[in-house]
Structures are given as C-alpha cells and as structure tokens.
Specification:
Blueprint lengths: L1 H27 L5 E4 L20 E6 L5 H16 L3 E6 L4 H14 L3 E4 L7 H11 L3 E4 L5 H4 L5 E5 L2 H13 L12 E8 L5 H16 L3 E9 L4 H15 L5 E4 L2 H13 L9 E3 L5 H9 L5 E3 L2 H16 L10 E3 L3 E3 L10
Parallel strand pairs: 2-3, 2-4, 4-5, 5-6, 6-12, 7-8, 7-9, 9-10
Antiparallel strand pairs: 1-3, 11-13
This protein binds beta-D-glucopyranose.
C-alpha cells in the first residue's frame, strides 16, 4: 500500500512538472527574443504552500525591435518598474516586423494577459492593433510611436504615452540658434544643413525633421537643405550617410541634424574621419540623450542633444496602465499623455550624466 502511495505521488509530481514545461513552451511561441520577468510560479517542489505571492497582474509588452538603442533603455526601465510593482511581465521583440508583432499581440490575448503595452512596428498598423485589443477588451497603452487621435478614439481603454515630437525638433533648432554664429559658420547669410532622418513612417522622424528647421526659419534665418536621407534610426546608416554627404558637399555643410543620437554618433565618426571638428567648422545635434551622446556633448564633440526621457515615459506608461486596470476610460481627444523633452547643452549636460 505504501508503495502504491509513493508511486502515485511520483506520478503526480511528474505530471505537474510536465504541465509546467507545457506552459513554458506556449510562452516561447511569442517569438525568439523574449525576456520574462515572473514571480516564482511554484515553490520548487516543496509541499508547503508559500504565503500567497500573488502577482499584481500579467502584462504583455511588445517592443518594435530590441535592436534599437533608445528602445533598449526604455524597455529596461519599463521592465524594472513593472517588476518592482509585482507584475508578471513578458517582453517580446517584434524584430521590426509588423506581422510578427500582430501574432505576438494575439498570443498575449490568448494567454489572457491583464494589460498590454505596445510599441507598434508601423504606425500605419495602429488601426488593426487597436481593433484587435478592443475586440479582446484588453486595456492597452501605446508607446513611442503615436497614432492619430482619430485612430485612438476607436477604443476608450486605450491611451498613448510619449512625447510631443515637434518639441524635440524645435529644441534641436534652438541648439543651433544658441551657437555664436547661429549655425552660419561660413558667414554667407544662410545655414546649410544635411538632415539624417529616422524611419519616415514614424511621426517622431517627420516632426523632428520639420520643426528643427522651422525653429531657424521662425528666427528669421535663411536655410539651405543640401540633403535629406533616411537613416532609419540606425548608427551605421548615420555614419554612411554623413560620410557620403561630406564627400559630396564638403565644407558647405554647416549643420548635421540627426533625428536621433544613435545616428548622430555614427555621423560623428564620419565627421571625425573627414578631419572636421564639431563646434568649430560644423555643428551636430541629435535627440534622446543616450549615454554615448551625453559623453560627446560633454567632450565638445556634439553641439547638443535633447533628452527623450525613457524613464519618465516608462513610469508614465505604467501609471496610465494602472489607471486603465482600475477601470478608467479615456475620452476621444484626450488619449495622448506627454512627457516633456529637455534641451541638453554643454552647460547642463552634467545634470543628465549618471
Ligand atoms: C527615438 C529613436 C528611436 C525611435 C524608435 C524615437 O523616439 O528618438 O532613437 O529609434 O523612437 O521608434
């Protein structure tokens, strides 16, 4: 009889272990790259029940791609806050592939997550994403890539947390206006620039491109665009584009506007290889305030950057998510929550360095 019980117990143990393994397998179908931060699910086989370690809820986080410098800082901040608050978090990599991200959203829905935080791959896919989460009735926070107010109005348990991209563009223009010659290094009465753009499908890229130049024009300065090239937010592309433009336009280039810091760091490499010196014969500005860019601003190798507050946005996203979990809904036209950008100059850069 004793033997029978021992056998039965062993069988139960084996079965429950198999069940745990099964769950894991389901999770990994979210896509190859994935990080999970979960409260311990069991108690390591011990028979005693641990005091209820109830998770605050399960949250699915979709990032457009892990291989993005700014979004890496952002997702780490997000994961840390959610974890500290006791949520069970799964973060998945969309690999810059909207079809893949759509699948990941559906998988999260099937798994019954309590809320979603989504950094869309394509802003143009917002309608589909919003229809999907609405259909599943899942509270959702969109981050980093802002859809239009009309698109968001389709679902009242949806909110966007991000920044006003126009503001970052204006600040970039102001960084150039703050230089001793207002960007006109060669004194020919106009500022000649190249624009290295992020992914133009993304409103941050569109508005930074527009408003950086507009700030100069609004200050009564004549501008000349020598070239505008998409660099897709990517450091290597930033370097190649800037190297090509320097080869083509040489000393004519007075300002290099980059829609983000990663491309600006790439551009800086090209500038240095061409024997040019930032703040002496060329100006260079970015956005994000990545650690690498803060170093370069502090060393005088970048004219300035603009803080894209990843931690502030992550905290804001979690706060809005908790409001949604508490039953809040958002009226049309009030579905965007903004965190301010901050201008980073050689004077204040130390305040941003960790
Ligand atoms: C950041 C970029 C980033 C992009 C991703 C922007 O707000 O400035 O660095 O690549 O978001 O969507």
């Amino acid at each position: 009889m004793k033997k029978f019980f021992a056998l039965a117990l062993a069988l139960i143990l084996v079965l429950s272990l198999a069940a745990c393994g099964g769950d894991k397998k389901d999770d990994s179908s979210n896509g190859g790259n994935e990080t999970q931060t979960q409260q311990p699910a069991g108690n390591g086989g011990s028979e005693t029940k641990e005091p209820e370690q109830k998770s605050a809820g399960s949250i699915g986080v979709c990032i457009y791609k892990f291989d993005d410098a700014f979004m890496t800082t952002y997702r780490n901040a997000l994961e840390k806050i959610l974890k500290e608050k006791g949520y069970e978090v799964t973060v998945v990599d969309g690999n810059n592939d909207q079809a893949k991200q759509n699948e990941q959203i559906n998988t999260f829905i099937t798994q019954g997550v309590d809320a979603l935080i989504i950094n869309p791959v394509m802003t143009s896919a917002a309608d589909t994403i919003i229809a999907t989460v609405k259909d599943a009735d899942i509270p959702t926070v969109l981050i980093n890539r802002e859809p239009t107010g009309d698109q968001m109005a389709a679902y009242d348990k949806l909110v966007y947390v991000g920044c006003d991209a126009a503001q970052s563009g204006t600040f970039q223009g102001e960084l150039i206006l703050d230089t001793e010659n207002k960007g006109d290094i060669n004194g020919d009465g106009k500022v000649s620039y190249i624009m290295i753009q992020g992914d133009p499908e993304n409103i941050d890229a569109q508005l930074r491109t527009e408003y950086s130049v507009k700030a100069l024009q609004d200050a009564g300065i004549e501008v000349e665009q020598l070239n505008l090239t998409r660099g897709d937010w990517d450091r290597e592309k930033g370097q190649t584009i800037c190297a090509n433009d320097l080869a083509q336009f040489g000393d004519k280039i007075e300002v290099v506007f980059c829609n983000n810091d990663d491309m600006a760091i790439g551009a800086l490499q090209a500038i240095q290889s061409a024997g040019r010196k930032v703040n002496e014969d060329i100006y260079l500005v970015g956005v994000d305030a990545l650690d690498a860019a803060l170093n370069e601003v502090s060393n005088g190798n970048m004219t300035g950057t603009v803080l894209n507050d990843a931690e502030g946005q992550a905290a804001g996203a979690v706060a809005e998510m908790e409001k949604l979990l508490g039953g809040a809904t958002y009226a049309a036209g009030e579905q965007s929550v903004y965190v301010d950008y901050v201008k980073v100059t050689p004077e204040n850069v130390k305040d941003f360095m960790k």
